[in-house]
Amino acid sequence: MGGWKGILGFEYGIVQAPLGPDISGPELVAAVANAGAIGILRAPDWESPDYLRELIRKTRTLTDKPFGVGIVLAFPHKENLKCVLEEKVAILQLYWGQVTKDIVTQSHQAGVKVVPQIGSFEEAQRAADAGVDAIIVQGHEAGGHVIGQEALIALVPRIVDLVASRGIPVIAAGGIVDERGYVAALALGAQGVCLGTRFLATEESYAHPMYKKKVVEMNKTEYTDVYGRARWPGAPHRVLTTPFFMKWRNLPTDENEANQPIIGHSTIHGTEKDIRVFAGTVPNKTTTGDIESMVMYAGEGVGLINDILPAAQVVKRLVEGAQILIQQNFTS
Ligand SMILES: Cc1cc2nc3c(=O)[nH]c(=O)nc-3n(C[C@H](O)[C@H](O)[C@H](O)COP(=O)(O)O)c2cc1C
């Protein structure tokens, strides 16, 4: 089986997804980078280049290895983008917006590789035409916001067929937790995998301890649009089916978080925020209040996560597990 190799100059083709808002901080990203994989910081959803610069520099005190920054294009980002290019971070990950030739050209001039996460064949086509360096294909299985409608098993090979001849590596995201998912993605023609929920349940992630516990304990998710409708309209997401969610999963379409009571507070990228009922912000380590009533994003693979691990262990298990699996089952 081909594809067993590092990508984009990294030792391995394993990507730790940027986890918003403020879940994948310097400690997680550095731990992933030190393990030879691709760690990605998450930029704030508002212009805050000085704060972002601090995050990047703090990460650099924890690792000599390259890493990335993720920017959600649906939010104000021009100054943050400028900061990523000035800091010459190895990877610029983009999501939920138009990846223009202009962004790609500017990034390449700064020596930064552009890796968008997309959710459809058409979006992959546009990204490839813009000249990106790799493409993360997000399947409907994914935790957090979900941009497409299709599952990975058919979408990945179609996009591989589209971009392989241009030398653009494809990275599969959604429901992948262990070496079986990793090897399955390689079989589909992907050269890498991107994991969100698995890296959320690590010692280094900023997810609230109660959220990590739920990821370990719970096995079911649902695709919904109940949370964050006012702040980020038209952005469906996959969440844990917590008791709070099950009670409100049929929330009338004209309801949203804007006029709801405050149930807690979080510090997100250094800024204190009120958390209202139905807000789209997952609890992080600073969050106080009614944590169990807050949104908890998770992918379909959550039932395969049974422990909170150091992030390096996640990478090690994927690499070693995949090598053994390929050797035992796919070589004669
Ligand atoms: C808590 C959480 C936050 C996320 N935040 C972002 C984000 O800010 N930007 C982004 O591109 N993707 C984000 N994602 C989606 C991931 O990039 C990725 O598609 C997804 O985690 C893959 O599915 P998995 O969770 O089953 O591994 C998030 C996912 C989770 C679980």
TrEMBL record:
The protein's name? Nitronate monooxygenase domain-containing protein
Q: Which InterPro entries match?
A: Aldolase_TIM, NMO
- Reading the lineage from the top rank, the first entry is Eukaryota
Keyword set includes Oxidoreductase: yes
Q: SUPFAM superfamilies annotated for this entry?
A: Inosine monophosphate dehydrogenase (IMPDH)
Gene3D superfamilies associated with the record? Aldolase class I
Query: Molecular function terms in GO for this entry?
Result: nitronate monooxygenase activity
| PANTHER family noted in UniProt | 2-NITROPROPANE DIOXYGENASE, 2-NITROPROPANE DIOXYGENASE-LIKE PROTEIN
- Source organism per entry reads Centaurea solstitialis
What are the entry keywords? Flavoprotein, FMN, Oxidoreductase
